[in-house]
Design a protein that fits this description.
222 residues; alpha/beta; Rossmann fold; six-stranded parallel sheet
Length: 222
Amino acid sequence: MKEQVLDLSAYQTFVFDCDGVVLNSNKIKTQAFYDVASIYGTEAAQTLKDYHIQNGGISRYAKFEYLITDILKKPLEKNELQQLLGNFAYEVKQALMTCEVATGLEELRQKTKQANWLIVSGGDQAELREVFAERGLDHYFDRGIFGSPATKDTILERELNNGNITKSALFIGDSKYDYQAANQAGLDFVFISQWTEVMNWQLFCQKNKLTCKNLINELGNE
């Protein structure tokens, strides 16, 4: 993907990841993965935590399935998976209600009145919608808030096909998977760095010739 000069007026749609972009919640979820998996021992918990960091943006459903089938090497039992997901949701929910929100959302919305906004996240869709409504953030995202269990690839394909995402479109993310999903869907991409958990993100952005901003309040300030 070529390096972009971000002319915000050129975009019909802005697609935002949630964790690490709109909310400062990456570390919250990383710790929650460790805590929830710790019932299986510290080694399994650390392995899941490392896997989560290496696969930012992928849903919790896939990660807990990986814990059971690949780390613990057990058959996938629906009840066990649901218990893990429930414990994770309980641990994360209150933290999401109080964590830092990215500055500049209102200003960016005013700059992009011509465009549609939506969230496409690896977070649980029902949880995201509840948190965004309770925190008074949902009104920014007029075309919806979408998350797991559907993958980002699936969501982007679906929303493109039904006309909810119209091009030109810009995906604003903080993970390798965000970039891969955006690229696969034919969306431009900008990497947000301040809260990312991608190791050596500068090298990743340089290698892929990505536009990188510290926080979303820098968008449109070229």
